[in-house]
Design a protein that fits this description.
Layout lengths: L12 H67 L5 H18 L5 H31 L2 H88 L13 H61 L3 H28 L7 E4 H15 L11 E5 L3 E4 L1 H18 L6 E8 L2 E7 L7 H4 L17 H11 L3 E6 L5 E7 L3 E2 L1 H8 L1
Helix pairs in contact: 1-2, 1-3, 1-4, 2-3, 3-4, 4-5, 5-6, 7-8, 8-10
């Protein structure tokens, strides 16, 4: 995955999006809760103001009830009989009921005024029953006049307290209305502020999220344009967004795969062209070399001087080397025809090693290095002649690269349903820059090498569906590995086929 530099902090688009959504939802919820609470408070204040206004009207009616009580007393005085006593008592009772209704909604000061109204009403009623009525019965008009003045003072006191109560309720109603207006104003300000904040947050977050998306996508577009224009080295720069970093990484891997596929295609076409040229050259050279070798052998038989025969033998050896090179060219250029059959891997590898040791020439400094065979028995379905040729070539190269004191190791191991062959030496090793071209035709690190042996090995192994690679051996030397997948067969099956 493409990793951004240390100075560029990574982030997740999903997390940022969820954060923005959460903030917006929180603002909406908070605004809704605050609006509901202020609405409830406003409703409560409005209802309270309404109740206080009703109480104010009731308080104002107390003054009317008090005057009605007095009016019936005055009628009694004017008519000088008891015809209005019953009405008087009814208004007294009605006034008491009104006072009882108002009492729960009053404070201590207003309740004292309400009690004073009740007290004055009772005093007025007592004055009417104990002073005015008896005086009327006695026709004591002086006493009636005196009691009437006292009754008038009590009525004035009752109406004064009733007016104060009405003003008290009016003041409280105005205060409740003011609170309701404040709550409504607060709700409007809060809703407006939340809407503005949400809009600003949405704008800022939207721009940031858009940049989080647009910047990597623009980078992908630029890189795609560069690649389309022929720049195969263009790659997407590291992306901070984790989700889009995966897309950028996949895009870069795709470009790498396309570059490798293009390089492989070019190499394949180049090798195919080389193979066609090599086949033509080998065919044209092989026949003249055969003629030359025929004449040289005839001349050797007819030569009388030993010096001449030795020189002609040298010419024959060089011509034979040229013929061998031509044969290798033809082998490389032609697609190998395989004849696979089940064989014992241990016998195949041991036979190839013995052939290589028997054909190895003596060195001036001593014998060629020995070969240690460490092979796991297994039946494999391969073309034995072709695989034997590969092993012989690899072992010969390993012995050529090693000194007489070091031994060459040949290993064979089962791997799942396949088989792996390793050839290890303690030579000088293969340079890193040469390892990638090691299996190309005509490329060699040896002074007298033709550069065809490993190329032929590569073709034979590839024809079997396998791979061959060269690695550095720990401690010095080289390690050639041949992997042949899907070649492993069961021993019982092999026995049945032989039977």
């Amino acid at each position: 995955m493409v990793k951004p530099p240390a100075s560029q902090r990574t982030y997740r688009l999903r997390r940022r999006l969820l954060l923005v959504i959460s903030l917006l939802v929180a603002l909406v919820v908070a605004s809704g809760v605050a609006t509901v609470l202020t609405g409830l408070a406003s409703r409560h204040a409005i209802l309270e103001a309404h109740d206080l206004q009703v109480a104010s009207r009731r308080a104002a009616l107390l003054s009317v009830n008090a005057r009605e009580q007095y009016i019936h007393e005055a009628h009694t005085i004017i008519l000088r009989d008891r015809s209005h006593v019953e009405h008087h008592d009814a208004w007294v009772n009605q006034l008491g009921a009104k006072l009882a209704e108002l009492r729960p909604s009053l404070g201590a000061e207003a309740a004292a005024q309400l009690d004073d109204i009740g007290k004055a009403s009772r005093e007025l009623s007592q004055l009417f029953s104990t002073a005015i009525l008896p005086a009327i019965d006695r026709q004591d008009w002086h006493e009636v006049h005196h009691a009437h003045e006292r009754a008038n003072a009590l009525v004035d006191r009752m109406t004064e307290h009733a007016d104060r109560l009405a003003r008290h309720f009016d003041e409280r109603a105005l205060a409740a209305e003011h609170r309701a207006e404040q709550f409504i104003r607060f709700a409007l300000i809060l809703a407006t502020s939340v809407c503005a904040l949400a809009a600003a947050l949405a704008l800022i977050a939207g721009r940031k999220l858009w940049r989080s998306f647009s910047t990597p996508l623009s980078s992908l577009e630029r890189v795609a344009g560069r690649v389309a224009a022929g720049d195969r080295s263009a790659r997407v720069e590291p992306v901070a967004a984790v989700e889009l970093a995966a897309v950028a990484d996949a895009f870069n891997r795709m470009l790498d795969a396309l570059s490798r596929a293009e390089a492989d295609l070019v190499a394949s076409e180049r090798l195919a062209a080389i193979g066609r040229v090599a086949a033509g050259v080998a065919h044209e050279i092989n026949n003249p070399i055969a003629v030359i070798r025929g004449y040289v052998k005839t001349m050797v038989k007819e030569a009388e001087k030993p010096e001449l025969r030795e020189e002609l033998s040298i010419l024959d050896e060089e011509a034979a080397a040229c013929q061998r090179i031509a044969e290798e060219l033809l082998m490389y250029a032609r697609s190998p025809v395989l004849a696979p059959r089940p064989v014992q891997a241990m016998e195949l590898i041991q036979n190839a090693v013995e052939h290589c040791e028997g054909a190895a020439p003596r060195r001036a400094a001593g014998e060629a290095p020995s070969v240690l065979v460490d092979v796991e028995p297994a039946f494999i379905n391969v073309d034995p002649l072709r695989i034997r040729q590969v092993i012989v070539n690899l072992v010969a190269n390993a012995r050529e690269a090693s000194s007489g004191e070091d031994e060459v190791i040949v290993r064979g191991r089962q791997q799942d349903d396949g088989y792996q062959i390793e050839v290890l030496d303690r030579g000088a090793g293969i340079p890193e820059d040469a390892r990638e071209r090691l299996f190309e035709p005509f490329f060699t690190t040896r002074r007298n090498g033709t550069g065809l042996g490993l190329a032929v090995c590569y073709g034979l192994v590839t024809a079997h569906g396998g791979t061959i690679r060269a690695e550095s051996r720990p401690g010095g030397g080289s390690r050639f590995v041949v992997d042949l997948p899907g070649v492993l067969v069961e021993e019982e099956k092999e026995a049945q086929e032989r039977a």
